[in-house]
Amino acid sequence: MTFTVQFLIDVLSLGGAYALMALGLVIVYGILKLVNFAYGELIMVAGYAMFLMGGSGLPWLVMAGVAVIMAVIAGIATDYVAFRPVRAKSVTAVLITSFAFSTLLQNAALLFISPRPRPVPLPDIFSQTVTIFGAITPVRNLITIVAAIVLLALFAWLMRRTVLGIAMRAAATNFTMARMLGVPANLIITSAFAISGFLAGVVGLLWIGRIGTVVPGIGLEPLLVAFIATVIGGMRSMTGAVIGGFLLALIDTTLNYTLSQELLKFRDAFTFSLVILILLWRPDGLIKGPASGQRT
Amino acid sequence: MLEVNDLEVRYGAIRAVRGVSLKADTGELVAILGANGAGKSSTLMCIAGALKAAGGSIRLDGQDVTSANPEKMVRAGVATVPETRDVFPDLTVTENLTLGSYTRRSDRAGVTEDRERMLALFPRLAERAAQPAGTLSGGEQQMLVIARAMMSRPKVLLLDEPSLGLAPVIVDQIFEMIRTLKQSGLTIVLVEQNARKALSVADRAYVMRLGKIAASGTAAEIGAATDLSALYLGG
C-alpha cells in the first residue's frame, strides 16, 4: 500500500509537470507547425525572475505571479523576435531564429547574471513533507499534482468553451480557413505564445522548486522532455501531449524504482530505447491528430 | 456592390488570372463558368483575400479592398465557401457554426439566434449538432460550410464549386438552398463547372477561358449563345 501510494504520487507529480511542459510546446506547434526551440528559456526566465526578486521581501505568491508574467512576456517576445519576421518565409528560417533567440537568452543570463547556480526563493511548504498512508511525500509533489489538475482543467475549458479556444483549435487544423472566417492570424498566434509562456512559467516554478536553484541551461531538460512527450503522444494532438507527458513520467519513475544503483545513471538510455519502441509501434504517436480529411 | 477591375493573379511565373473585370450588384447572383484551370477559383480566392493580387483592383461598396487579408474581408462583409469544403473536422457542428460568427462574437444573443435559424434551415445539421464535423457526409459538410459562412451575416457570399463531388440529388438540394439565399437579398458570386445548374439560378454569368473573360451576359444569353460543352473541352 505504502509503496503503491508512493509510486502513484511520484508518477502523477512528475507526469503533471511533464504534461504541462508538453502542452506549452504543442499549443504553438499545433498552430504554426513549428517547434519553438526557445521554449526552455521561458522556464529559465521565470527562474531568474524569482532569483532577482529574492530578498525583495515581497510575499512569495506575488513573486511567483511576477515570474509567470515575465515568462508570458518572454513567450510573446519569442513570437515578435523569432517567429513573426520570418514566419511567412521558410520553416528553416524560423528553426534558426528560434534557436538563436534561445541562445541569446541563455547567453544574456550567462553574461549578466552568472554561469553558476543561483538560489531561488521558495516558501517553506516546498521543503516540508507529509505522510500519506505511510508514504513520506514532499508537499511540493502534491502541489504539482494539484497545479497540473487545475491547469489542465482550465486549459480544457478554455479550448472547449471559449470562442478564442475554439478558434485556436480551428486554426490548428486549417489556418487559412480560420482566417477566411475572420479569425485574425496574429491574435491567435500571440495567444498561443502567451499560453505557452504561462504554462512554462508555472512549470518553471514547480520544476525549479525541486532543485532550488536556477542555471542558464535549466531549460534544456524541460524542452527535451516536452519534445519527447509530444512526439510519443502525437504532435498534432493536445490530448496526446498530456498523455505523452504522463507516459514518459511513468517510464522514468518505473526505471527509477527498478534499476540498480549502477544502472541508474544510464536511465535516459533505457527511457529513449522505450521511446524508440513506442515510435516503431505507432510512428504518428499514440493519439492521431484531428482528422485532416475532408470528404468529397 | 462588388467590382473587380483588370485583376491579375500569379503563382510564381504562371499567370492564372489575366486582367479579369467583373461586377456584382446588390442582390444579384453572378456565375463564373469555365473549364478546369480557367482561373475561376483563383479569381474568387483573390477576392476573398486568400491570394494576393498581382495587379488590378477589387472594390466593395466603392471601397478599395485589393489584397486585404482574409480576416479583413470577412469584417467588410464578404464570406467565402472554398471548393475544398473546409469544415473543421474535429470541431462539432455547433462549434463550426460558432466560429462562423467570430467577427460578431460580442453579439451573443444575435449569434445564438442565427445559429438556431441555421439549424432550423438545415434539419440534417440540427440532428448532428453535437457530432464532430468530420463525421458528416459530403453533402452535409457542404451545407455546414455554407451555413457557417452565413453566420457572419455577409453582404456578399463567394461560393466555389458547391456541387463538386456530390450526388445529383444533393446538388439539387444545394442549389435550392442557393436560390433561397438569393431571395433573401444576398449578393452571391458562384463559381461552377456545372454550367447548366449555375445558369438556372444566376442572373448574369461570365465565362472564363485561360485566365480571361471569354464571354459575359445574362444567364439566358450565355445559356443560349454558348455551346456549353465547348466550355469544358477548352474550345
UniProtKB/TrEMBL annotation, chain A:
What is the membrane topology noted in the UniProt record heading this document? Answer: Multi-pass membrane protein
Q: Name one GO cellular component term.
A: plasma membrane
Q: What's the protein here called?
A: Branched-chain amino acid ABC transporter permease
**InterPro entries registered for this protein in UniProt:** ABC_transp_permease, BCAA_transport_permease
Per the record, the similarity remark reads: Belongs to the binding-protein-dependent transport system permease family. LivHM subfamily.
Where does it reside?
Cell membrane
Q: Which GO terms describe its biological process?
A: D-alanine transmembrane transport; L-alanine transport; L-isoleucine import across plasma membrane
Q: From the UniProt record, which GO molecular function terms apply? A: L-isoleucine transmembrane transporter activity; L-leucine transmembrane transporter activity; L-phenylalanine transmembrane transporter activity; L-valine transmembrane transporter activity
Q: Looking at the keywords, is ATP-binding present?
A: no
- Which source organism does the UniProt entry give? Mesorhizobium zhangyense
Q: Which residues form a coiled coil?
A: none
Task: Give the UniProt keywords, A-Z.
Answer: Amino-acid transport, Cell inner membrane, Cell membrane, Membrane, Transmembrane, Transmembrane helix, Transport
Q: Where are the transmembrane segments?
A: 12-32, 60-81, 93-113, 142-159, 180-208, 223-251, 263-281
UniProtKB/TrEMBL annotation, chain B:
Q: Which InterPro entries match?
A: AAA+_ATPase, ABC_transporter-like_ATP-bd, ABC_transporter-like_CS, BCAA_Transport_ATP-bd_LivF, P-loop_NTPase
Please give the superkingdom of this protein's source: Bacteria
Q: Which CDD domains match?
A: ABC_TM1139_LivF_branched
Q: Which SMART domains match?
A: AAA
Q: Where is the ABC transporter domain?
A: 2-235
- Transport among the record's keywords? yes
Q: Cross-referenced Gene3D superfamilies, in alphabetical order? A: P-loop containing nucleotide triphosphate hydrolases
Q: What GO MF terms are annotated?
A: ATP binding; ATP hydrolysis activity; branched-chain amino acid transmembrane transporter activity
Q: Which PROSITE patterns match?
A: ABC_TRANSPORTER_1 (PS00211), ABC_TRANSPORTER_2 (PS50893)
Q: Name one matching Pfam family.
A: ABC_tran
A Gene Ontology biological process in which this protein takes part is: L-amino acid transport
Q: Which UniProt keywords apply?
A: Amino-acid transport, ATP-binding, Nucleotide-binding, Transport
Which protein family is it in? Belongs to the ABC transporter superfamily.
Q: What is this protein called?
A: ABC transporter ATP-binding protein
